[in-house]
């Protein structure tokens, strides 16, 4: 009897600046697998290692497909691209009648044991499980010296957590897993996220657990190489927690940390449940194979806390104390969520509704409300502490502890949590990292919101400069200025303010604590007094321009506006830089031929006044009426912030997509014909420039010295009125396609390139610090600021 043919296994590997000897060792271990039916799918996430990978694979006679990338990808996006290509390869490499192919994941620097794939195939054979994974041995950077015999024991992992347990802590390591292709078909595309907050192995594990199960192979089938560049690395989390003591007792920071973890778990649970439902509806998954019931505590509107408490008790009794703490934290957050909902529904909302009704009732007769008893008035009129009425953003919540060995640039930003970071903060991060690359010590201080996870925040910040050398990264530190207490400092520090209230902080800290630098740097990215109605905020923002500082302007347009307003510090030699938009990323894409109605993209952010959403809707309505357009002619779509769809004249419906993932944004624009993007401020919004570079004819407004139409004929700039904007839309509607020349936009008219600006800033900072940086000045790899559309939030 002929033995059945072994299944083909597609091995997906993300390659990012590998060490050649480590990569060769890994490829050799894949080549020497006892299961010989395997094909490497290497995603070239760094855009430069294709020759190395293909060359090594050829030397080893290892079948390989290299997947090129248009931009550098993080680990999650690289695996996502690899899985998509693996699925495309299955019908090419697999002939009819062959066993269903499997997919395995691999890191670029580990070493597989010879039976890694064979054991995975055996575990999946005649099993309903959709995925299997294994234990691993921890080894040092040399790949030989064992540091721990078992990753599971070292990290105290739960061996069989179940579907819900994966959301307390993932126990699956991607480089050990083997799965059926069906898991990838259902899992793609991965749920979007801002920054990396979940990893691919967790998402794939959730899908596998909800569609047939996940099996564990108890053996160590991989040598996991531990070194300084691991994306995560193996950590004894419970040991660290037990040593932390009172730092993990319930307080404001603890609640915030637990809420962030619960939010991620709830997001993934709902995403997995919705994906499973979609797969059943479209036939990818038989209804009987869906096993997502364990996710119910995350799906309900109010319930779930009892289940998390029960999970916590069971985990504690089984010795998994750290997991029990996580489950208990989820119960606390869930209860807090329910209490918040009830308070809002039955408290202020109820009282306001009753009060409003009674006010209207008494206005009819006798015209005034009855006067309450004196005791009730006394209960209501309680004294308020004065500091509750003062804008706390202007008051430092920390004290400097002058123990730092060297002066540093202290960059004050509202937040360092990745999900709360918008484009203005990103610019400040890039400036700080650029100066660290040029030899300066840099401290980032969060002034408004507490840092939820220092490790995640640090990883996110350093990923802004992928080529940042290790010694430069060591000069970067992150501090939380919200919790109070003392922060490490040096009397020679120089502050960089990034918003009007952080300018107040810099001035106060310098005056109160005797810093030797009387001036600070001030990153000016808009004219902030105009964000507010006349009042305290407007006055405080205006007052920040009276402090002693050196300005750095985001574009010459903003500098010129300040000069027009009579500010003497806005001179021709003041540093000004142009937006960090990668024009080539948009201009190089081939326009897509589309049939049917022409697509118009509106930059729609109703909550942000300066984006003039009502004016945009009025202009769009006038344009549709003037041109007598219907749904067969135009398909308007709003991107930016999600809002309700809008019925426009002629039966046209404006749909809202909300914030687009940054990596999907350029391709979306290549299929867009017209754009409407408004910004009633001197700051040049990025979307009009990105749209024009993508070949979109876009309408925007001018403001003071700002006229983006001088950059390219693809941008039509009009007065910020609905009739003028509607007329510009009509002009764009009847204009021809945007030429390649018009897409090649030169930004240098808006200021220095960010890199040249940072060079100039480094010279000035060196003079202010009166010292030589600890490393030679050099150019850091340019980092591109995300667009307003994908990253900016409302001020």
From TrEMBL:
MF terms in GO: polysaccharide binding
UniProt-recorded name of the protein: Uncharacterized protein
Domain of life: Bacteria
Residues covered by the WsaF C-terminal domain: 598-729
Region of interest: Disordered: 774-795
Residues of the WsaF N-terminal domain: 409-554
InterPro entries registered for this protein in UniProt: Nucleotide-diphossugar_trans (IPR029044), WsaF_C (IPR055050), WsaF_N (IPR048510)
